[in-house]
Write a structure and sequence with these properties.
This protein is α/β, with parallel strands linked by helices. About 45% of the residues lie in helices and about 15% in strands. The protein folds into 4 domains: about 5-150, DNA polymerase, domain 1 (Orthogonal Bundle); about 155-245, 2-Layer Sandwich (Beta Polymerase, domain 2); about 260-330, Beta Polymerase, domain 3 (2-Layer Sandwich); about 340-580, Alpha-Beta Barrel (TIM Barrel). The longest helix is centred in the first third of the chain and has 19 residues, at about 135-155. The structure holds 2'-deoxyguanosine-5'-triphosphate, calcium ion (CA) (2 copies) and zinc ion.
Length: about 575
């Protein structure tokens, strides 16, 4: 465990002891220890190795032993036993914002409540308001806290977090006191969802920056405000952290707080092996006496990597998944960009459950400068989405041909269908009709509870169908809402490659499916993808940006993505399954 993780455990020990009503001095020893540890300038592992941890003021013998055990083994019997001795229902009450251990203890002792549900009932029955030291106001606050707990605890889609993050970053950059500002954390790494937002600012005058930050619109609560650090919570439940540092620390702080933790750990190890210690404050020689005199300069993150003989690692790739090996040797491929896209597939119109007509969608695609876009309305098994049967599909093909022939719009329309994969793996529409389309996206929209074996066999059967051009949203997951169904991704990837089938990267911010963690390997094996917005309205074409984000996290380049091809090139690809396209 590292410093911060150990500090978390110590804080939790303090809280548990408080819940049990233990001696306040003992409690304070742990919470003070945690704070000391968090702000410790020296490297913890070094202090342990040298046996000098006990020399740090405030670290008693018992605490030193526990810190050493946690650092070495990652667990602590004392802590495990303590946790087991407190009712989990009582511990869970700590999740209610604004409710500390002391208050929970008295609520439990006086009212006998042992869970969030019981506390909620007590509030509804007005029993908390009558308690000494609580009152109506604090009862209302607790009740509201219970209601909001869910939203607070949740992670937030990158797509939704951006709406909050961008105006804040712009605002920070516009302040006269701000020399440099950036977002950091999982948001900068473009993770599909984020726990909180992180901002790093360089300024020699933090006061006005802090004041501006905590005065933002939509802030429900300022959860912390110091001289250089603040945390706020927005109405949506999303939290944001701000750190202001002196200009010479900016690159180090930006790198550190961009993470990921796994990446940081690996980079720090590399630094150590070369005699340097790397932290949010700087990069210094391990044997140096004072920090200031030995710290290396870094005007940018590039410089930090350069000091360690590495190429710059794009933030999206800092996940501890092989990026340092690449940075040490060949470097990185040119990652996909939104501007590489020349068109898009898998989109809906009013013929099924879309909100815009064929013409409106084509106009929107043209407005984006796309050379082509592909229709893929639902098929008849998706009756709840007004899926098309064979007859309506034939009519739609005709309308698309007419629109293309009219040359009214410069963007070419491909006819297609998002055809349901039925529970047995067969496709929902007669193959002779599917072959008249320019392409088919095969997707699952039913029988999600099949076993992994059944589900994988079902999908592979659909991949082997000669009419299938692409596989739609591989796992059916809806991020933060619905779990994926179980599939053997590796087998499916192999089957797709063997059958010249594209696996889409569904760019709907709730899907981002197939997951980015699989793409690097799959693309190396030869799998192609298409960044598909699955648009149900013209503005959903924007989703391609979310798809590009995670494609970058999957190390994908324009070469791996069919919708970076020009119209004639993409026709060649589709024609491999539809000879009529070349006629
Ligand atoms: P999130 O907010 O859960 O989506 O994920 P992050 O990565 O934004 O995590 P956050 O906000 O807790 O911290 C921001 C960055 O700060 C994190 O990516 C790496 C760095 N950091 C935080 N805690 C630690 C730690 O215990 N050790 C190391 N090495 N780095 C840390
Ligand atoms: Ca974060
Ligand atoms: Ca954070
Ligand atoms: Zn679908």
């Amino acid at each position: 465990m590292n410093k911060r993780e150990i500090a978390d455990v110590l804080n939790e020990i303090a809280t548990l002891l408080e819940l049990k009503g233990e001696n306040p001095f003992k409690i304070r020893a742990y919470s003070n220890g945690a704070r000391k540890l968090e702000t410790l300038e020296e490297d913890l592992d070094t202090l342990i190795e040298e046996g000098t941890l006990g020399d740090v003021p405030g670290f008693g013998k018992a605490l030193v032993e526990k810190i050493e055990t946690l650092a070495k083994t990652g667990s602590l019997e004392f802590y495990e036993k303590l946790k087991a001795s407190v009712d989990p229902g009582i511990v869970s009450m700590l999740e209610i914002p604004g409710l500390g251990a002391k208050k929970i203890k008295s609520l439990h002792e006086i009212l006998g409540v042992s869970s969030i549900e019981e506390l909620q009932e007590a509030c509804e029955a007005n029993r908390v308001a009558e308690l000494k030291g609580f009152g109506k106001k604090s009862q209302d606050k607790i009740a509201e806290g219970i209601k909001n707990r869910e939203a607070y605890g949740k992670r937030h889609l990158w797509w939704n977090a951006r709406a909050v993050a961008e105006p804040i970053l712009e605002g920070l950059q516009a302040l006269p006191e701000v020399e440099r500002a950036s977002h950091a954390g999982s948001f900068r790494r473009k993770r599909e969802h984020v726990g909180d937002l992180d901002f790093i600012v360089a300024s020699s005058n933090p006061g006005p920056v802090m004041d501006w930050f905590v005065a933002q619109d939509n802030i429900r609560e300022v959860t912390a405000k110091g001289d250089t650090k603040a945390s706020v919570r927005f109405e949506s439940g999303l939290q944001a952290d701000l750190r202001v540092v002196p200009s010479e620390q900016f690159s180090f702080a930006l790198h550190h707080f961009t993470g990921s933790k796994d990446h940081n750990v690996l980079l720090r190890q590399r630094a150590l092996s070369r005699g340097y210690s790397l932290s949010e404050w700087g990069l210094k020689s391990v044997d140096a006496e004072s920090f200031e005199e030995s710290s290396l300069k870094a005007d940018s993150e590039e410089d930090i990597f350069k000091h360690l003989d590495l190429q710059f690692v794009p933030p999206e790739l800092r996940e501890g998944l092989g990026e340092l090996e690449a940075a040490e040797s060949d470097g990185f491929p040119e990652l996909l960009e939104v501007s590489d896209l020349k068109g898009t597939f898998h989109n809906h119109t009013t013929s099924s459950d879309g909100r815009a007509s064929l013409e409106e969608m084509t106009e929107a695609a043209q407005a984006r400068g796309w050379e082509y876009w592909g229709v893929a309305d639902h098929s008849k098994a998706s009756f709840q989405a007004n899926g098309l049967d064979e007859e309506r599909l034939l009519e739609q093909i005709e309308r698309i041909e007419e629109l293309n022939a009219s040359k009214r719009l410069s963007t070419h329309v491909f006819s297609g269908n998002e055809c349901d994969i039925l529970p047995d793996g067969s496709l929902d529409i007669d193959e002779s009709i599917l072959m008249k389309l320019d392409y088919v996206v095969a997707s699952i929209h039913s029988s999600f509870s099949q076993s992994e074996e059944e589900m994988s066999a079902r999908i592979i059967r659909a991949i082997e169908n000669p009419a299938t051009t692409m596989l739609g949203h591989l796992t059916g997951r809806l991020l933060l809402r619905r779990e994926p169904y179980s599939v053997d991704t590796h087998k499916i990837v192999d089957a797709a490659i063997a059958n010249d089938v594209i696996i889409e990267l569904n760019a709907n911010p709730y899907r981002l499916d197939m997951d980015w963690r699989f793409w690097r390997k799959a693309a190396e094996k030869g799998l192609a993808t298409s960044i598909n917005p699955d648009a149900h309205a013209p503005e959903h074409f924007d989703f391609v940006e979310a798809g590009v984000n995670v494609a970058r996290k999957g190390w994908l380049t324009a070469e791996n993505v069919v919708n970076t091809l020009s119209l004639p090139e993409v026709v060649e690809v589709l024609a491999r399954k539809r000879p009529h396209l070349k006629g």
